[in-house]
């Protein structure tokens, strides 16, 4: 089963209050640390049910949201319809493996997606290629963990990342002004105890 179909199975129960709070913190950090403008064109890769994009949409001109799961995007589409949001476009497509002229984005974001991708250096380079000069790439994902975050690691390619890894990926992609910091912690019960899993936000700017 591919990862899109796997997420189809959980789409209708994916949204939870804790995920909403995480998305809210992510967007708050973007708005406080990156000079987002109301004419920004944004790309979100691995958009899921769209919570991040819906929260970000009032602050930018348009958002192009990509995901592989038809089920997740169906939930996303219903949210947009219900809330009357007009500046988000949804695509069910693997944009990371697509050739094309997508180099006009001011901001590219991806949240909790990178650890599902085998070749992260290639993925970060591709994400940076979507940016116009001066644009920003933002990645949110797990810090290095022991493999216990997911109850099923079938589609997990990396058990998080350390800061040196992320900085190296960003530098290899030609990004500058790189910043990596812990922005929140996810609590999960494991073997009768609460385990804490830190999550980082990394960003860099395309200067050439």
Automatic annotation (TrEMBL):
<dbReference type="GO" id="GO:0032259">
    <property type="term" value="P:methylation"/>
</dbReference>
<keyword id="KW-0489">Methyltransferase</keyword>
<feature type="domain" description="Methyltransferase">
    <location>
        <begin position="42"/>
        <end position="135"/>
    </location>
</feature>
<dbReference type="GO" id="GO:0008168">
    <property type="term" value="F:methyltransferase activity"/>
</dbReference>
<dbReference type="InterPro" id="IPR029063">
    <property type="entry name" value="SAM-dependent_MTases_sf"/>
</dbReference>
<protein>
    <submittedName>
        <fullName>S-adenosylmethionine-dependent methyltransferase</fullName>
    </submittedName>
</protein>
<dbReference type="Pfam" id="PF13649">
    <property type="entry name" value="Methyltransf_25"/>
</dbReference>
<keyword id="KW-0808">Transferase</keyword>
<dbReference type="InterPro" id="IPR041698">
    <property type="entry name" value="Methyltransf_25"/>
</dbReference>
């Amino acid at each position: 089963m591919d990862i899109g179909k796997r997420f189809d199975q959980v789409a209708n129960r994916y949204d939870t209050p804790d995920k909403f709070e995480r998305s809210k913190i992510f967007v708050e950090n973007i708005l406080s640390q990156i000079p987002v403008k109301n004419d920004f064109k944004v790309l979100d890769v691995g958009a899921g049910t769209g919570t991040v994009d819906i929260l970000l949409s009032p602050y930018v001109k348009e958002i192009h949201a990509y995901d592989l799961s038809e089920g997740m995007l169906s939930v996303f589409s219903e949210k947009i319809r219900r809330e009357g949001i007009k500046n988000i476009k949804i695509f069910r497509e693997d944009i990371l493996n697509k050739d094309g002229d997508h180099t006009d984005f001011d901001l590219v974001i991806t949240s909790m997606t990178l650890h599902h991708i085998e070749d992260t250096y290639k993925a970060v380079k591709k994400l940076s290629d979507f940016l116009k000069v001066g644009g920003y790439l933002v990645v949110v994902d797990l810090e290095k963990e022991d493999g216990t975050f997911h109850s099923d690691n079938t589609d997990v390619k990396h058990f998080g990342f350390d800061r040196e890894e992320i900085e190296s990926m960003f530098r290899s992609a030609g990004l500058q002004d790189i910043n990596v910091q812990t922005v929140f912690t996810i609590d999960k019960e494991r073997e009768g105890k609460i385990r804490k899993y830190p999550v980082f936000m990394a960003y860099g700017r395309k200067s050439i």
